[in-house]
């Protein structure tokens, strides 16, 4: 009985956020995947000696809003410090790509989908990272700290700041047949 309860508890967060969108709803799938993910792989162009100009990917915690079916804005918020190597890259060139995948949720394991299987949906965003303005900082803080409460206790002397990923291009891989493109307008016009 206990293993069954643990399995149900593990599946609850994704199930509570609504059913997975159909493959023909690419914009909704993009919103759904982002909202259900707590982290992503952010790729920058490196400025580090020996890697200058080469792609460099790093993991970052993110949030588009509090967990739950109606909490997401679609905007990927991040909590960053200039001490971080990828942030140093962004200071020279703010262009980046961000990949999020349902592989980090119970969904793919439950369905026995390998993370590389297209049915284990993943989204690739391209755009740039910008610091949020004062009026948006409280929204970013609420979005991030609701999912990542540990962040509130991170060292103050690291000069953390809130940033967002400004989306310019979106690719969705959630079914067989290749990538689907979604415009930012389509993306922001749907709910996850």
Automatic annotation (TrEMBL):
The UniProt keyword set, sorted, is: Glycoprotein, Secreted, Signal
The stretch of residues making up the signal peptide is: 1-18
InterPro entries reported in the protein's UniProt record: CREG (IPR014631), CREG_beta-barrel (IPR055343), Split_barrel_FMN-bd (IPR012349)
Gene Ontology CC entries for this record: cytoplasm; endomembrane system; extracellular space
| Localization (cell) | Secreted
Main localization (coarse): secreted
Q: Which residues form the CREG-like beta-barrel domain?
A: 21-189
- The source's domain of life comes to Eukaryota
Record keyword Ligase present: no
Which SUPFAM superfamilies does the UniProt entry name for this protein? Answer: FMN-binding split barrel (SSF50475)
> Which Gene3D superfamilies did the record assign?
Electron Transport, Fmn-binding Protein, Chain A
Q: Which family does it belong to?
A: Belongs to the CREG family.
Name the PANTHER family for this protein. CREG1 PROTEIN, PROTEIN CREG1
Protein's name in the database: CREG1 protein
What's the gene?
Creg1
């Amino acid at each position: 009985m206990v293993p069954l309860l643990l399995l149900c508890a593990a599946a609850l967060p994704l199930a509570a956020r609504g059913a997975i969108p159909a493959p023909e709803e690419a914009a909704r799938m993009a919103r759904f995947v982002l909202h259900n993910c707590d982290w992503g792989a952010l790729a920058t162009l490196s400025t580090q000696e020996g890697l200058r100009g080469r792609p460099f990917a790093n993991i970052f915690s993110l949030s588009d809003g509090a967990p739950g079916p109606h909490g997401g804005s679609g905007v990927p918020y991040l909590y960053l410090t200039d001490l971080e190597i990828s942030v140093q890259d962004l200071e020279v060139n703010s262009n980046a790509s961000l990949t999020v995948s349902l592989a980090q949720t119970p969904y793919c394991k439950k369905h026995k989908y390998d993370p590389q299987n297209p049915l284990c949906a993943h989204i690739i965003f391209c755009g740039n990272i910008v610091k949020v303005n004062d009026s948006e900082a409280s929204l970013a803080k609420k979005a991030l700290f609701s999912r990542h409460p540990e962040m509130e206790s991170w060292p103050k002397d690291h000069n953390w700041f809130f940033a967002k990923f400004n989306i310019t291009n979106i690719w969705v891989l959630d079914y067989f047949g290749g990538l689907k493109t979604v415009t930012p307008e389509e993306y922001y016009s749907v709910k996850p």
